[in-house]
Amino acid sequence: MLLFALGVLIIAAGLAVSIALHEVGHLVPAKLFGVRVTQYMIGFGPTVLSRTRGETEYGLKAIPLGGYIRMIGMYPPHKGEPEGTIREDSTGLIQQMTSMSEDAKAYESAQYGPEDAHRTFVALSVPKKLVVMLGGPTMNLLISVLLMVVLVSGIGLPSVTPTVQSVSQCVVPADAPADVSCEGRPEAPAKAAGILPGDVLREIDGHEITRWSDVTTAVRAAEDRTVEVVVERDGELLPLEATMVVDARPVLDADGQAVLDADGNYVTEQVGFLGVAGTPALVRQSPAQVPELAWDAFTRTGQIVVTLPVRLYEVAQAAFGSAERDPNGPLGVVGVSRLAGEVAAADEPGFALREKVGTMISMLASLNMALFVFNLVPLLPLDGGHVAGALLEGIRRMIARLRGRPDPGPVDMSRMLPLTNAVAIVFLLMTLLLLYADIVKPITLFP
Question: What ranges make up the beta strands (E) of 344-442?
Answer without folding.
Answer: none
